[in-house]
Write a structure and sequence with these properties.
TIM Barrel, four-stranded mixed sheet, four-stranded parallel sheet
Amino acid sequence: MLEHNLDELTFEDYLRLFTETDLQYLLSLADKVRRRFCGKTVTFVNNLVVNYSNICVARCPICAFARGIEDPDAYTLKPDEVAKLVEEAYYMYGISEVHLNGGLNPELDVEYFEEMFRLIKKRTPYVRIKGLTCCEIGYYSKLWRMSYRETIERLRDAGLDVLSGGCLEMYNNDVRKIITPNKISAEEWFKIAELASKCGVLTNATILFGHVEKPEHVIEHLLKIREFQDKTKSILIFIPLKYSPWNTELYKRGIVKDECSSEYVLRVIAISRIILGDRVKRIAAYWVSIGKKLAQIALTGGANDLVGTMLNERVFRETGRRDITTIEELAKMVRDAGYQPALRDTYGNIVRIL
């Protein structure tokens, strides 16, 4: 009976379900919800990640990727260099999406991004550009002395298709003060995401877990995502990201001493599906973050997307992760877990059953 009344549960009900329920029951319940709304198809996109710059003034203690302007290994790719990487990946691997990932770089102007986006679209018009987070929109709007709307519209007109969904981290601002003290608030994130949707730019959304949060913060975050999605219908995919502490300041300071358990990962993904239901059609088992084996298990507990091939991903690599993959390997992972793999586009439309 419980699975028929999940939307009617209270905050405390969700919290008990998340923390006290037998794991196998929780996974089974999440799987029932997923099957009811999404069937047995598991999707992913063939995409390239380009980290166009590692310079970031936020210097979040959760991040091992960011560098200061004067750091010897700091870099910023030229727009032509980025476009060339995308073009090569398109012709070599048939990618349909480029995920542009950077930081808050005070040396970049709006023309840098406009040139980058236009060059990508000129050379590879069929490749969707997923890039920039709401934090970047917020930071650059202030840097460029432009409104959020003007920033979004200029980037959209240059070729930006979808916001990447990163930097939401955790909704609770007490937690954010510890893990991302110099970024915009969570409320500002949602404000920018809502405005972007009105400008025709949809977004992904994330949760970063396994650091200093408490279980109630996870529930709070998910309920805010649900509320936002009910209002805007603008979130394409929800991606739970497991925090990897290695080489980060939180780890060096002893605030986070280890990764969270595999059970906790599965619980977060399962409760995400239970709370979000079919509001967000795709909930990810992000293999780069949680590992391939655990991603397979998560498919039995609410997840129905592996995000992508993520060619050239570097942010998690800076914490010591080295996994790479192919379309064929991801498809086999899905089949071995008992599901039907399918290649999708950036917007979630199925391109090909594999």
